[in-house]
Amino acid sequence: QSVLTQPPSASGPPGQRVTISCSGGRSNIGTNDVNWYQQLPGTAPKLVLYNTNQRPSGVPDRLSGSKSGTSASLAIGGLQPEDEADYYCASWDDTLKGVIFGGGTKLTVL
Amino acid sequence: HVRLQESGPRLLKPSDTLSLTCTVSGGSIISLNWWGWVRQTPGAGLEWIGEAFYGGDSAYNPSLNSRVSISMDKLYNRLSLSLVSVTAADTALYYCARGATHAGTTRVVGAFDIWGQGRMVVVSS
After folding, report:
1. How far lies A98's CA from each of A47, A92, B42, in Å?
2. pLDDT beneath 50, residues of chain B
3. Predicted local distance difference test score (pLDDT) of residue B104
4. What pLDDT is recorded for position A78?
5. For A7-34, how does the pLDDT look when each residue is reduced to its tens digit (9 = 90+)?
6. Residues A93, A26: contact at Cβ < 8 Å?
7. Taking an 8 Å Cβ-Cβ cutoff, which residues of chain A contact chain B?
8. I need a labelling partner for B64 at 20 to 30 A (CA). Which of A64, A81, B75, B89 fits?
9. How many CA atoms lie within 13 A of A62 on its CB side?
């Protein structure tokens, strides 16, 4: 069981906005930034957000991130078929003294 | 473009030592980046193994700390992972990855911006 909790699935039709949550605690999200990864089937994870809301070069601004207290969110606006993937959150945990990942959310574009 | 390529044995027996190498091309491991390893299993998802900075610090997953080490070789521009006393629970897809930086200078903890394709390692008797 992951220290960071994500819903196992999320979905939406093309063009809609979808939000994926990541719930943690004071020792991780409550204190540190959150990073988000997108993983397409059969490929390595791809960093899509870092430091909670920063986009690496090449990531569209349809993706955005936020954090409040001990929870973080990844929002994908204008959903497209190519957004269908697994999404993982990650953060440093001060108590465990290591990087922890969420269990992942499978996003389906209807 | 920086590329990472993992290599090493695919099948191990319990109590063996897992040794994987990640060759870096298109860039140098002697940089402001940290370099690390992440593994993935269907059941446990993604798990951070650890990371290191050339000539400097390293950090390991406390749950693996006593069994794991990461080394870096500037001559061959590669990093290596060693995990001793493996069990079936160490069966996973192992990725090497480059630690991300913000504005090219500041380490972003827990963020890996370039990944290898992964190396599946099975531990079985």
Report:
1. 18, 6, 21
2. none
3. 78
4. 95
5. 999 999 999 999 999 999 999 999 999 9
6. no
7. 2, 32-33, 35, 37, 44-47, 50-51, 54, 56, 88, 90-92, 96-104
8. B75
9. 14
The whole-number pLDDT of residue B65 equals: 72
- Token readout for A107 is 């996003």
Q: How far is CA B65 from CA A21, A24, B30, B36, in A?
A: 30, 23, 24, 14
pLDDT tens digits along A53-103:
999 999 999 999 999 999 999 999 999 999 999 999 999 999 999 999 999
The verdict on a CB contact (< 8 Å) between B111 and A92 is no
What is the DSSP annotation of A63-80? EEEEEETTEEEEEE-S--
Task: Please indicate whether, in this complex, the C-beta atoms of A47 and B102 are within 8 angstroms of each other.
Answer: no
Amino acid at B46: L
The 8-class DSSP code of residue B118 comes to -
- pLDDT computed for residue B55 by the predictor: 82
- Give exposure, B23-38, as e/b (b: 16+ Cβ within 10 Å): bbeeeebebebbbbbb
What pLDDT shows up at residue B43? Answer: 75
Closest alpha carbon within chain B to A103:
B45
Taking contacts as CB-CB distances below 8 angstroms, the residues of chain B near A98 are 48, 59-63
Q: Which residues have a Cβ under 8 Å from the Cβ of B14 and sit 6 or more positions away?
A: B86, B87, B88, B123, B124, B125
